[in-house]
Amino acid sequence: MEKLIITAAICGAEVTKEHNPAVPYTVEEIAREAESACRAGASIIHLHVREDDGTPTQDKARFQACIDAIRERCPDVIIQPSTGGAVGMTDLERLQPTEIEGTEMATLDCGTLNFGGDEIFINSENTIKNFGRIMIERGIKPEIEVFDKGMIDYAIRFAKQGFIEKPMHFDFVLGVQMAATARDLVYMVESIPEGSTWTVAGVGRHELPMAVMGIAMGGHVRVGFEDNVYYEKGVPAESNGQLVERIVRIAKEMGRAIATPNEAREILGLEVK
User: C-alpha distances in angstroms, 161 versus 142, 146, 193?
Assistant: First the structure.
């Protein structure tokens, strides 16, 4: 079984210090949390950025500052900016981090999502196509974010039309719009094209069981404050690194070695540095 790629989603756009005081906002805090995850074994940092007061932003300059700060501490890690941003942002706002030189990966959401209450995260067909085209032009590999089976079908359709390059890499985000069970994960894995790679991210209490299933099934795993701010029920996690450390321990017990950033690049078809 190939080595395990661990992605750390260190802050997201929705969770706050009210949920967990360790959620990072400032450039220094984001770099600190990225370093904690990298030292623990993460080879990819999935990156949202915030203003100092916690407001989510897609500002290119803010992304650049955070990326530079992470690079100082973790020079080899793969940094994967989010093009999801936050609910209500325009496409142009969301695409800003893809303009940053040296960006290897970025997220590509392949469908519209009910995100809770009245919040709707809109990704029209034209948005998906445009984001895919721009990533091809800029030499960026998309991580295809899917929240239900229909989003896999969109990705396959748009790949056939030339808007997404193969082999594709999927991130199954379960526990939001689609349930997070073994049946659901198997269904998603069996629905993607041969030769694709995949990661699973379970939201909230689903994070750990989905991670364990992903390890056992030969996929890859995402953990971090964006998806879950607790280490166990009622106990806030101390850091993103603590969440990564647990996955490393479990993976080793299950016979999966942990991929370094360059080994992750080889698995994902990125240029090795």
Answer: 16, 19, 15
User: Residue 258 corresponds to which tokens in the numbers above?
Assistant: 């942990």
Q: Is the pTM of this model over 0.85?
A: yes
* Cα dihedral 108→10→74→237 (10° resolution): -150
- Which of the following CATH numbers is that of domain 6-268: 3.40.250.10, 3.30.70.660, 2.40.160.10, 3.20.20.70? 3.20.20.70
Per residue of the chain (273 residues), give pLDDT as tens: 899 999 999 999 999 999 999 999 999 999 999 999 999 999 999 999 999 999 999 999 999 999 999 999 999 999 999 999 888 889 999 999 999 999 999 999 999 999 778 888 999 999 999 999 999 999 999 999 999 999 999 999 999 999 999 999 999 999 999 999 999 999 999 999 999 999 999 999 999 999 999 999 999 999 999 999 999 999 999 999 999 999 999 999 999 999 999 999 999 999 988
| HEC assignment per residue over 21-85 | CCCCCCHHHHHHHHHHHHHHCCCEEEECEECCCCCEECCHHHHHHHHHHHHHHCCCCEEEECCCC
- Report the 10 Å Cβ neighbour count for 122: 14
Q: How many residues does the chain have?
A: 273
Distance CA 52, CA 30 (A): 10
Whether residue 226 contacts residue 9, with contact meaning beta carbons closer than 8 Å, is answered with yes
* CA-based nearest residue to 155, from 132, 139, 176: 132
Question: What are 16's two structure tokens?
Answer: 């706050």
CB atoms under 10 Å from CB of 21, counted, come to: 9
Q: Are 167 and 104 in contact (CB under 8 A)?
A: no
